[in-house]
Specification:
The complex is a heterodimer of chains A (about 350) and B (about 350).
Chain A (H helix, E strand, L loop, with lengths): L18 H20 L2 H26 L7 H17 L4 H23 L4 H21 L1 H4 L5 E2 L4 E2 L2 E2 L3 H24 L1 H11 L1 H6 L4 H27 L1 E2 L6 H14 L4 H24 L2 H4 L4 H16 L3 H14 L23
Antiparallel strand pairs in A: 1-4, 2-3
Helix pairs in contact in A: 2-7, 2-10, 2-11, 2-12, 3-4, 3-5, 3-10, 4-10, 7-8, 8-10, 11-12, 11-15, 12-15
Chain B lengths: L5 H9 L2 H6 L8 H4 L3 H20 L4 H39 L6 H18 L4 H22 L9 H23 L14 E4 L2 E4 H23 L1 H11 L1 H6 L4 H23 L13 H10 L5 H21 L4 H16 L14
Antiparallel strand pairs in B: 1-2
Helix pairs in contact in B: 4-5, 5-9, 5-12, 5-13, 5-14, 6-7, 6-8, 6-12, 7-12, 9-10, 9-12, 10-12, 13-14, 13-15, 14-15
Classes of the chains: A mainly alpha (about 350), B mainly alpha (about 350).
Chain lengths: ~350, ~350
């Protein structure tokens, strides 16, 4: 067990609580900075993708994990970010400026969706966001004069301050910097009054309202923030893809993002990273596993989504807190070593709570 | 024109997305060759062109109106048939939601399983159509019962979000398993009535559509009588109204939940088998479940007649949009209507959500 002796109020809101945290996060940062030297291009590219997923996941986590608004249409924001970025780049707008514009456009659309979604709760919100994503996908595939429809839109080469970003490691560092910035920003938002208002809305909308939180404003804000961050991920995703078409932003991508949040652990930013690693590397693991499986099963085209679905089912049945929750349990096992009891983390028996009354 | 036949619409909905859009406007449905609706198609083609030609050259003449009217009637009937399928899937959603407050995102995939059961029993084993239908419905009902007893009961009382994700995961698993067992090639579904049509003046109704209409009517009648006049049905109504009170008066709530799932799966099987002749049977056909959501939401997610009504609204407006609006609107209609309905009435048209008093 570790006992923290607090000597200053700021220690309460520190991101890194003690020396151990600082050491391990420092080591992690060193490792990811040094990664390009050790990894080959393929794995570096995959790591880049994982970090892009993580950025989008941070956006979704703000909304789902901290504001309690389940959105099943985040692929739409990813798409809006990606298309805005590449269209503006194509029109000759500088890289950074077009990226900012992509964030702003997604955030604006997100605010609009959030504003419309204000009156909806629970199930209806899920379905409405799903419909929004479907409409966006259809619009992108139909608006051929703008997006090229299914013919696709090639993403112009990125260049930062006149330096072309062609190598994988350059994009890797760009994504890394943005991920760190987004993570710190999100954590800072969460410990500010805005974040606390969001958490209050998640826990009970009525209580939040009665302590004077303007639920409408904060819900819309949460949607806008979430969409903006996802739009940023979309802009990076565009460079990763190199060629945009509506196929890349289907319902399945929205699901994958949600899966990431659930598997990682709803309500924790570390969970996003775990989830992103999981989503990013599961296909590689499956590819390796294919060699050992019998041919009949290994060659089936639908194997990957099936496995995704199976994992989702198992996680929700047996570990609703996700990877992060499992990690907490393992940690407390070792911290309390001889004294750990299973019942410490036993899930409380829950009863069906009607949603017809809210 | 192609949209005039309900069959082609469904085949399209279940096509792989990429394929569907790449083919552009000059697409030809795989149904054309096998389906004797060719005559129907020919007819509708003629009627539309005749409007185009006559409408411009000799406007105001009587025959023009006659043909326009019959075309409209044709569209309405096709829409009604499509809407019945949406309605039946929506009915499955509603039954489960009303009783257990779970939203079953795997309903479309249950329908897919039902269609495959039907293909296997009727097509491969050569059972008579009605017997095969009954067996398929029965086996899927047993499957639904077991699904609830072993998987879904464990998450009762968890947040809605977890349940939604769980059923989505289950849907993926079903799809993968169906792909493994039956393969991904679309299969046609032979029926005794394939290819026969009923002519009523200018309007042509294929027997496939007629079966859908009659089957839906019959099923609804059975369900109505069951819920109104049997002990079990009344017990189910009681459970859906107040779970705790139902316990108190001695209704076996757990078994009722499982039975509701069984009924819902059985309804899905009926929908699948009715849909199979006009569509093609393949693992991806469950995706029309998303449109059925729109139907359920418009119907209020808690009302059984509402679900059918919602299905008809979606089905008819989709067919009308396919004929009278530019290409691309047909796919968007369901989602558009859904969003408009949710914006205007966030709790569905027949709401049963009440505000909690604090």
């Amino acid at each position: 067990m570790r006992f923290l002796f607090k000597t200053h109020y700021n220690q309460d809101i520190d991101h890194l609580k003690h020396g151990g945290d600082r050491f391990w996060y420092g080591l992690l940062l060193l490792l990811v900075v040094a990664a390009p030297a050790a990894l080959d291009t393929f794995y570096l590219g995959e790591l880049n993708l994982v970090m892009i997923y993580a950025i989008a996941g941070v956006g979704l986590m703000l909304l789902v994990g901290y504001t309690g608004q389940v959105c099943m249409g985040h692929a739409a924001f990813l798409a809006i970010g990606a298309y805005t970025h590449s269209l503006l780049l194509g029109a000759g707008v500088p890289f950074l400026l077009s990226m900012i514009a992509a964030v702003l456009v997604s955030a604006l659309v997100g605010a609009g969706v959030g504003w419309i979604a204000l009156r909806m709760t629970g199930l209806y919100l899920v379905i409405a966001t799903l419909a929004f994503a479907m409409l966006t996908e259809q619009t992108i595939s139909r608006a051929e004069w703008l997006t090229g429809g299914f013919r696709g839109l090639s993403v112009p080469q990125a260049s930062l301050f006149g330096l072309p970003l062609t190598e994988v490691w350059q994009r890797y560092y760009l994504t890394l910097v943005l991920l760190v910035v987004v993570l710190i920003a999100a954590l800072n938002i969460l410990r500010s009054s805005t974040g606390r208002a969001m958490v209050a809305i998640r826990d009970s909308e009525i209580s939040a309202e009665s302590v004077g939180i303007n639920v409408a404003v904060y819900k819309t804000l949460a949607f806008a923030l979430s969409a903006g961050i996802t739009g940023l991920a979309g802009a990076l995703f565009a460079h990763r893809l190199g060629y945009l078409s509506p196929d890349a932003f289907t319902f399945l991508i929205s699901l994958q993002l949600l899966l990431m949040v659930v598997v990682g652990g709803v309500g924790s930013m570390r969970g996003v990273i775990y989830g992103a690693l999981f989503i990013g590397f599961l296909p590689q693991l499956l590819a390796i596993a294919r060699d050992t499986l019998p041919r009949q099963i290994a060659q089936a085209p639908g194997l990957e989504p099936g496995i995704f679905g199976l994992i989702l089912v198992l996680v929700i049945l047996f570990e609703p807190q996700g990877i992060f929750g499992r990690w907490l349990k393992i940690k407390s096992y070792f911290q309390l070593f001889p004294l750990y009891r299973r019942a410490t983390h036993k899930r409380q028996k829950t009863y069906m709570r009607t949603e017809r009354l809210r | 024109m192609r949209a005039l036949s309900a069959g082609s619409c469904f085949a399209e909905a279940s096509q792989p997305r990429r394929d569907r859009s790449r083919r552009g406007l000059a697409r030809s449905d795989p149904l054309d060759a096998s389906e004797p609706g060719g005559r129907r198609r020919l007819y509708s083609a003629r009627s539309k062109t005749s409007i185009d030609i006559l409408g411009t050259r000799t406007a105001g003449r009587e025959p023009v109106e006659g043909i326009a009217l019959s075309q409209l009637l044709q569209v309405l009937i096709n829409g009604l048939a499509v809407g019945c399928i949406y309605g039946l899937i929506a009915l499955g959603f509603v039954l489960v939601y009303k009783a257990t407050e779970m939203v079953n995102f795997a309903q479309g995939d249950l329908m897919m399983l039902g269609a495959f059961f039907g293909v296997t029993l009727i097509g491969d084993f050569g059972l008579p159509w009605l017997l095969g239908l009954l067996l398929a419905v029965l086996s899927l009902a047993v499957f639904g019962y077991l699904l609830d007893a072993f998987v879904l009961r464990r998450v009762l009382g968890e947040p809605q979000f977890a349940i939604v994700m769980l059923t989505i995961g289950l849907g993926f698993v079903f799809r993968a398993v169906a792909g493994l067992v039956w393969g991904y090639d679309p299969q046609s579904f032979p029926t005794p009535y394939t290819g026969k049509t009923l002519r009523m003046g200018e309007v042509v109704v294929s027997y496939e559509n007629l079966t859908i209409l009659l089957g839906t009517f019959f099923l609804c009648l059975v369900l109505f009588l069951f819920f109104r006049h049997t002990r079990l049905g009344i017990g189910m109504q009681a459970t859906s109204q107040n779970q705790l009170a139902a316990y108190y008066v001695g209704i076996p709530v757990k078994r009722v939940f499982s039975l509701v799932w069984a009924i819902s799966a059985g309804v899905a099987a009926v929908a699948g088998i009715l849909l199979a002749p006009v569509s093609l049977v393949q693992p991806g056909m469950g995706f029309i479940g998303i449109k059925a959501f729109a139907a359920a939401v418009i119907g209020g997610f808690g009302s059984i007649p509402g679900a059918l009504l919602g299905g008809w609204i979606i089905g008819i407006s989709e067919q009308v949009a396919g004929v009278y609006l530019p290409a691309g609107f047909q796919e968007m209609t369901a989602y558009g209507i859904l969003i408009i309905a949710l914006v205007l009435r966030p709790e569905g048209l027949f709401a049963q959500v009440q505000r909690k008093k604090v």
